[in-house]
Amino acid sequence: MRYLYSVYSDSAKIALQSILAHKLRAFLTLIGIIIGVAAVVVVGASISGLNTYVTDRVSKILGANHFMIARMASNGRMSDEEFERRNRRNKRLNWDDYEWVRDKCQACSEVGVAMGAQADLSQDGVEFPGAIIFGVTANMETIEQKTINEGRFISNDDVTRSALVCVLGHDIREKYFENTDAIGKTLKVRGLPMRVVGVEESRGSFFGDSMDRHIYIPATTHMQLFGRNNLQIHGGSSSRETFAAAIENARMEMRNKHRLKGNEEDDFGLVDVEGLNNQIDQFTASIAAVVIPITAITLIVGGIVVMNIMLVSVTERTFEIGLRKAVGATRKQILVQFQIESAMLCAFGGMLGLLAAYGIVTLITSLAGITMTITIGYILLALIVSTGVGMIAGIYPAFKAARLNPIIALTKTT
């Protein structure tokens, strides 16, 4: 054991001395490795950051532990044939469906209703086209984890009385009540004056759609204005551990309400935040599977440069190799020495590449405000791949050095 330690430690010392003796050459050799590692890590950080950003946006906009039952809901895109099939089979959801799930779903912490419709607003000569009017129950504030900046959200009493009250999204509040207190003011929706009782916090946009063009009114008022179409049942659980049970409980109660037999397919759609997050993970993983290998090509180029320099090093140190073999060094020891030197060279390049990647990520995050996350997985990948490239690149030069005839090698002085 001590012998092996001595052999490898001596080889590492000789390799380090050789690298430090030609610092500039070593650095120029490693530029390809540094750029390759930095490219892989920065791209990986961008993909991880994209995943984190979208997942956080989904949780902020839809709420955590949130599921939805609707007539036509699906995780992912449906084919035209599937859409037509579901359109013929699935039933329209009614208010009594909501009440059934609300009363029967024991695993659900909350069950509410939302329904949406688009309307153009016009008041005092100020127009706002394409506002989204949502009819909701009071607990949608909890289910979707909304933040109300001013006033309050829709109450249970508002829903019971079909009250003419509304909660405004940020953009609509700025359009009609920019320099005044909006609470208590009136805004016409479909010609009916609605008293403003609250203003929602700005939520920005999601996949290009503004989330601040919304108006919330009681679900019962919405049904009177826009009809009973597009009713959605929303539910949630108190924790992530009980989320799956809540989804299955709600699903089974809907099946019971629609009197579906055990082998019959659901005649409604069900989607949840967890399923959407899984789709996001699959999407970003697909991007990584395509982009990371492309950026890793730079590492291959860097490996070729390392191989070339190691061949030059073998030629330069022919006399040294011959001397070592003459005093008893074995082929294996010579092979190990040059393999260690090549691997160490690329490992240094990997570490420098990581430092460069960290600097680039920090700069982009601070200047552009883009979320980028360097994960431990990409750090390990960069170090392992760069060291592996060094070992592979050093195989041929190491074999060439190990096979030198010591008598011929001792005649070489350069």
Describe this protein's structure.
The strands form 2 sheets. Strands 1, 2, 3, 4, 5, 6, 7, 10, 11 and 12 form a 10-stranded mixed beta sheet that branches. The relative contact order is 0.18. This protein is α+β, with helices and mostly antiparallel strands and 414 residues long. The chain contains 15 helices and 12 strands. The longest helix is centred in the C-terminal third of the chain and has 44 residues. Helix 2 runs antiparallel to helix 13, helix 10 packs across helix 12 and helix 10 packs parallel to helix 14. The model has no long low-confidence stretch (mean pLDDT 79). It is elongated.
Write a short abstract of this structure.
The protein has 414 residues and is an alpha+beta fold. Helices cover 58% and strands 17% of the residues. A hairpin with a 2-residue loop joins β6 and β7 (192-200).
Largest sheet, strands/sense/barrel: 10 strands, mixed
- SSE pattern: HHEHHEEHEHEHEEEEEHEHEHHHHHH
Share of helical residues:
55-70%
Number of strands: 12
- Helix vs. strand class: alpha+beta
H/I helix tally: 15
- In percent terms, what proportion of residues is strand? 15-25%
Globally, the shape reads elongated
Oligomeric assembly: single chain
Rg calc: 33 Å
* CA(first)-CA(last) distance: 36 Å
Unreliable sequence segments: none
- The overall pLDDT, averaged over residues, is 79
List its salient traits.
17% strand; 414 residues; alpha+beta; ten-stranded mixed β-sheet; two-stranded antiparallel ribbon
